[in-house]
Structures are given as C-alpha cells and as structure tokens.
Amino acid sequence: MGEDGQLRSKAFWINNTGDEKWFYPNGNIYSVSYSKKGQIISTKYYHEDGSEMTTKEFRAKEDKMKKELQQMQSTVQEAQPYFPGGAAGFRSYMEHHVQFPADFLKQLPLGEKIKISFRLNQGGYAYDIKVLEFQNFDLQNAIINAFKNMPAWNMKGYKDFGPVTYVLNVSRY
Predict the structure, then answer these.
(1) Nearest-10 crossing angle of helices 86-97, 137-148
(2) Domain 86-169 belongs to what topology?
C-alpha cells in the first residue's frame, strides 16, 4: 500500500507459482504477471480505463515514458550551475588544491570519504562551506581554503544555489 492508503500491488504465490498485480492510482489494474516455478511466463498490461493494451501500445507507452524521463534529466542537468570543466574539472581542481596534512595521510584508513557541503552565491563562488562528519581540523581548513580560492561556477541565472553535498574520495597514494 502507498502512503495514501491505496493498494499498489498484490501477489498470490504457492510453491513459486502465482500472479502479481499492479494498480493505477484510480484502483484499476496496470499489469498482471503470471509466474510458474519462479519464472514469469506472461505479463498483460492495461490502460487506465481497464481495457487491455496490445504489445505495440505498451511498447509505445514505455518509449514515451523513457523519452520523458530523459528530457526531465536533461532539463535538470542543463539548469544546474556547473564548475568550469564540469564534474571532471571539479575533481581535478580538488585533487590539485587540497593539501592533505602528512600526519593525516599516515592514519588514513583505505577508502576514506569526506563529505563536504557548500552553497554558491550569485557570482558562482562557494560559501557556507562545511566538512561533515570529519574531525581533522587541519584537513578541514585545507578543504575550506581550496573552496574559498576556487574559480566561480557558471550559475545559469541562479541568485543562490545549494546546499551542494560533495563526497571527496581520499587515497594514501
């Protein structure tokens, strides 16, 4: 059941054989999958009005949903601020501008990750920089200094953006 109390799916199984039904928000059946010995042997899809879909209709609906999802993802990516050089440029900047204290690197467990939260102002510069869940004061200062000195992000018209959470993967090598 969903948070709204409506039935979303229902399954009936005996000895790995049975069916599973999925429902539209209006209560009509969306799909029914029939299984035998744990393998789906057939699936039927239905329109929201309850009439059965043909395979061609289902594939067209599935293709339309995929295109809509791709469009939404593209719109979100195009609308967000970005660092000069994109994600690769940001990683490169961090690798070259965060100086890890020598004592820290000696104590570093393999695969250590450091979470950083920050906001971007209208000019694209980072502020409200926080190193989360990490207690090495020297490293916190090194990260904050790297952020304070980083080039401006392209803000794409935003007056303020964030918080952005970034996970810095740290290596001893």
Answers:
(1) 130
(2) TolA/TonB C-terminal domain (3.30.2420)
